Amino acid sequence: MQRLEPLAGAEFAPVTTYLNTASSGLIPARTAAALHAAVDESLDHGTMGRDYFGPVAASRAAFARLLQVPAERVAVGGSVAVHTAFVAASLPEGAEVLVPEGDFSSLVNPLAVRPGITLRSAPLEELAGAVRPGTALVALSAVQARDGRVADLEAVRAAARAHGAKVLVDATQAAGWLPLRATDFDYLVCGAFKWLLCPRGVTFLAFGGEEGGAGASMADGPLPLFAGWVAGEDPGESNYGVIDRLAATARRYDQAHAYYAYVGARASLSLMEEIGVRAVYAHNTALADRYRAGLEELGHRPVTAPGSAIVAVPGLTGAAERLEREGVRISVRAGHLRAAFHLYNGPADVDRLLDLLG
C-alpha cells in the first residue's frame, strides 16, 4: 500500500473545493485517460472496443478484492435498483422485509413495489431490535446517504441470523472508504460512481453468506430472472434462442454492461486498491472529525454520525448558494448541509469551508 498523499495528488487537481462525493465522486486522471483512449479506439473498433469483457472482468476482480469476496460471487450491472429488484423477486410470497426509515429509494422502492411482500420500517438505531421471527429480509444502507449515519451492521447481522432472516446491504455510500466484507451478508449491492470514483453506470451485486466461498457454484442460487446473452457460460454461443448453459458463477446474474463505464472502472478501482480502504478510511474520517470540531466551535451541531466521512448539519442550508458562488461544491439533503470528505480533500479544504461558514 502506497502513501495516500503523493499518489492521490497525482490523480486529482480540482479547480473547486469539492466536498460532494456523497452525490458523485471525481474520476482520477488515469480514468480520464483510459476513457479518452477507449473513445478513440471506437473510431475503428465500435462501442464494444477490442475486448468487451476484459475491463469488466478486471473491475469485477478488483471490487471483489476490495470487499473481500470471491470474484465468482460478484455480478455486474448498471443500476442498484435493478439489483435490488432481483433480490425482491427472489423472495417468497408473503415475505416480510424490514428497512430503516428514510433509507435511499433505490434500495427501498423495488422492495416496496414487489407484489406479495410486506414492507416494514424502523428507525436505523432500532433496526436490529425490530427483526422478528417472521422477517425474511433486512435491507439497509451501510451509511445513510442523507446524513452520514453508519449502521450497526454487526448487530443487524446477528439479529437477522437469530431469526432466520437474510441481509441485503447497500454499500454505495460506504464501499471505498469504510472497511466492509461482503461475505458477512447474504447480498451486497453497490453503485460505484461515488466513493469508488468510477463512471456512472457501474454497479455490483455480491453474494455472501456462509456458502459463499471461492469456487462455490451459483447453480443453486436465486433464479437468474434477468439472464441475457452475457450470462451464458460461453457468451459467444449464447446469442440466439434459449441459453443452454448459464455461467456457473455469479456472472449468470450479470446485466450487459456499458463498455466505457467499465473501462473507467478498471482504472479507478486500480487506484483504490493501490491506496487501500483502511488508509482512505483514516484520511476521510480525520477530515470529517476536523470539520465537526470546527462546527462545534462555531456553535453548530451536526447530526451524530461517529466514524463517518459524511457530515450533515441542520440549519445551514441557506449557506449553500453562497458556498457554490465561492467554488465550494457541497449538497443539501433533507434540510441538512451535507459535506463529504474523500481522497482529493485535505485540511485546507476543511478550514476554507469553516471560514466561509463563520
Major sheet description: 7 strands, mixed
Name the helix and strand elements from N-terminus to C-terminus, one letter apiece. HEHHEHEHEHEHEEEHHEHEEEH
Q: Share of helix among residues?
A: 25-40%
Rg, rounded, reads: 21 Å
Query: How many independent structural domains?
Result: 2
Low-confidence stretches: none
Strand composition percent: 5-15%
Let me know the CATH homologous superfamily of the largest domain.
Type I PLP-dependent aspartate aminotransferase-like (Major domain)
CATH class of the largest domain: Alpha Beta
Strand order of the largest sheet: 2-8-7-6-5-3-4
Q: Please tell me the CATH architecture of the largest domain by its name.
A: 3-Layer(aba) Sandwich
Distance between the termini: 38 Å
Kindly state the mean pLDDT as a whole number?
A: 95
Shape: globular
Tally of individual helices: 11
Say how many strands there are: 12
Gist of the model:
By secondary structure, the chain is α/β, with parallel strands linked by helices. The protein folds into 2 domains: 4-27 and 276-357, Aspartate Aminotransferase, domain 1; 32-274, Type I PLP-dependent aspartate aminotransferase-like (Major domain) (Aspartate Aminotransferase, domain 2, 3-Layer(aba) Sandwich), CATH 3.40.640.
Write the topology of this structure.
Blueprint: H1 4-11, E1 17-18, H2 29-45, H3 53-66, E2 74-77, H4 80-89, E3 96-100, H5 105-112, E4 118-122, H6 127-130, E5 135-141, H7 153-162, E6 166-170, E7 187-191, E8 203-207, H8 259-275, H9 277-298, E9 310-314, H10 320-325, E10 328-329, E11 331-333, E12 336-340, H11 347-357
Parallel strand pairs: 1-10, 3-4, 3-5, 5-6, 6-7
Antiparallel strand pairs: 2-8, 7-8, 9-12, 11-12
